[in-house]
Amino acid sequence: MPKAIVTIKDVDDGLLSQLEYALTFASEEITSYKINKDNLRIEAEVNSEKATPSVTAKIEELVARYQKREFGLPTAVHFQQDRELLSIDAWQGLLERRWVTEVGPGHVILRGPAARLMALIDAKAQSEFGGRFEAQLEIYPSTIRCETLDRCNHFTSFPEHMDFVGHLKQDLAVLNTFSNACRDNKWSPALHDGNMVEPDLAVSPSCCYHCYEGMEGWKLEAPRCITAVLACHRYEGANHATMTRLRAFTMREVVFIGQPRFVIERRAKAEEMIIQWAKDWELACSFETANDMFFTNDYSIKASFQRQQQAKKELLLRIPGEKKSISVFSSNFHAMSFGKAFYITIDGKPATTGCIAWGLERWVYAIFSQFGFDVEKWPLKLREEFERFQPVNNQLL
């Protein structure tokens, strides 16, 4: 099979993982790829010799986004905790026990102890953080208007993530043809060709966007705090593996809306609380500055701004069996971006916003990866909370 080979120049070691993540979106004509770290080059297999030049050019364009710039991407580690861990194949162990079932790339069903643990994590986040900040509960639809995502600048930053929602045309002939074809030959993607309306909705890639669109035009007399949980979607191509990057996942958020001081102080308190949580559960982790993996030509500017301003911080939990860490919690400061976009004001000025977010399935996966499947061998406080916890039906709602 022909290969596109591109040498990597002037890319910091810390950014190679982000570059590797982004490569899955370079071209649909790439069948597989890897970064050879010995000689720093990308080796991508291409489905045809004819496509190789265009694929090579696209990879080169992508590499250019991650090359060193004058702005820099500083990292500040605010907390770190380590411990001896066994190398556990958590994914295989969860599948064998049927505590997790994979029903398609990036789609999983949790049951048994895995479902119980996820409900515990969500309940803890809601009660401790939502309670501490007197957060008001809001319930959101899983889909979101494309217009809202456009106003949030999601399409200009993360176009690769989108799962759009469509439906068949309101036409009797189209509906009959589709139904009859499914009856005769079963469903296939080809049946949608030319029969779908243009999408005006997408499955929401994040929880807090609904908060801002729901407050459009509000003139706040006092700051507010909300909490919500949402089933989100992000398409991540070949990166959908185990439970580290799911296409369909669950996000709990607490959102702060008000004056800058209100948001900054509560965000700082939340960061203290998540570090204490990590200490209590004896998690092997770090809490550090981070950046979103913007899929844009101005990646370095956006990423550098986030890091310079410490606008994004993440709690990273070690996955010893995969020799990497994954983000399970983020703390985000948006300044007045959403206040301006949705005309939310306080004291006559655009409101400042920030949020904290938990990726619930990732927490579950990281805990089993670090401590295994025997609850009796888990750290004391984690085990006590897990055994004491009594989930109820629809706990996450």
Describe the structure.
The structure is a single chain. The longest helix has 21 residues, at 112-132. This protein has three domains: 3-66, 2-Layer Sandwich (Alpha-Beta Plaits), CATH 3.30.70; 77-160 and 205-388, Bira Bifunctional Protein, Domain 2 (BirA Bifunctional Protein, domain 2); 168-198. The N and C termini lie far apart (49 Å). It is an alpha+beta fold and 397 residues long. α1 packs antiparallel against α2 (52-66) and α4 packs across α12. The relative contact order is 0.15. It has helices at residues 16-23, 52-66, 90-97, 112-132, 146-151, 154-157, 172-185, 209-214, 260-280, 299-308, 337-341, 360-371, 380-388; strands at 3-7, 30-36, 41-46, 77-81, 100-104, 107-110, 136-137, 143-145, 164-165, 201-203, 219-220, 224-233, 248-258, 285-289, 312-319, 324-335, 345-346, 349-350, 352-359.
Please summarize the sheet with the most strands. 8 strands, mixed
Regions with little confidence, pLDDT below 50 for 5+ residues: none
| CATH class type of the largest domain | Alpha Beta
What fraction of residues sit in β-strands? Answer: 25-35%
Q: What structural class do you assign from the helix and strand content?
A: alpha+beta
Average pLDDT reading: 90
CATH fold-level label of the largest domain:
BirA Bifunctional Protein, domain 2
Shape: globular
**What is the architecture of the largest domain at the second tier of CATH?**
2-Layer Sandwich
CATH superfamily of the largest domain: Bira Bifunctional Protein, Domain 2
Rg: 22 Å
